[in-house]
């Protein structure tokens, strides 16, 4: 049934367009500043179009040496993010499945522990964590950061998986168990594929957190060769001058991998979030 186009509908559409343009303003500032010269980026209006297109910011970001090279920093971020996400998916899915299939006080207590782990701030345990990683020789390494992020984000991963696992019917599992399949075989062959929407949600949410995190790498990777993108950006901020065109160029480059991943996984993300909310 067709609805009549009313003046109020036009007003709503205009408001939505204006809101959309307002949301795009930061991206416009990011784009135009990245293509300005250092002097123009520091002196001109943030929203002004560059007088001349200057890709020097991108060139400097890519051609820098050591920890000031965006490609090296991107590789470090990719290794740490990918390793952390894989560990979170492997361990978090098994832990959440165990909680979801174990009713009673023990399962509820474990779930409460997961929720408490999300609420408690990491800063409370930062000093003992730093000492522990230093004692184990894991400071300033990719593997140390993967272990750290896996521990920090495991409550979130288990929480997301548990909400979805609780609504997965156990009929297929029972049938496979009757046929003689082990518990691990049932999980790998039947349960984990059914949790794919939740896996997409966990991968995107935790991946974004790890990829964009600044504070943790700044503390635990200080002075090492495993510098990540956010820390690398900070190296262009000086006491007397800040290279805004380079910083914004690095931001644009760093957005490409995570946006690409999101475009491919957004369907799973939405399905997993909806399933988790229902659970």
Short description:
The chain is an all-alpha fold and 279 residues long. It has helices spanning 7-34, 38-43, 56-63, 70-100, 105-119, 126-135, 142-165, 171-178, 183-194, 196-212, 215-220, 229-234, 244-278.
Structure notes:
Helices cover 74% and strands 0% of the residues. The longest helix has 35 residues, at 244-278. With 279 residues, it is mainly alpha-helical. It contains 13 helices and no strands. It is globular and about 75 Å long. Helix 1 (7-34) packs across helix 13 (244-278) and helix 5 (105-119) packs across helix 7 (142-165). It folds into two domains: 7-57, no CATH class; 58-278, MetI-like (MetI-like fold, Orthogonal Bundle), CATH 1.10.3720.10. The two termini are 35 Å apart. The mean pLDDT is 83.
Quick tags:
279 residues, mainly alpha, globular
Write the CATH architecture name of the largest domain: Orthogonal Bundle
General shape: globular
Helical residue percent band? over 70%
The count of DSSP E runs of length 2 or more, i.e. the number of strands, is 0
**Helical stretch count?**
13
Order of helices and strands: HHHHHHHHHHHHH
The major pleated sheet works out as: none
Question: Assembly type of the shown chains?
Answer: single chain
Annotated CATH topology of the largest domain: MetI-like fold
CATH class of the largest domain: Mainly Alpha
Distance between the ends: 35 Å
- What count of structural domains? 2
Mean pLDDT: 83
Q: Class by helix and strand content?
A: mainly alpha
Tell me the name of the CATH homologous superfamily of the largest domain: MetI-like
Q: Rg from C-alpha positions?
A: 23 Å
- What is the beta-strand fraction? under 5%
**Low-pLDDT segments:** none
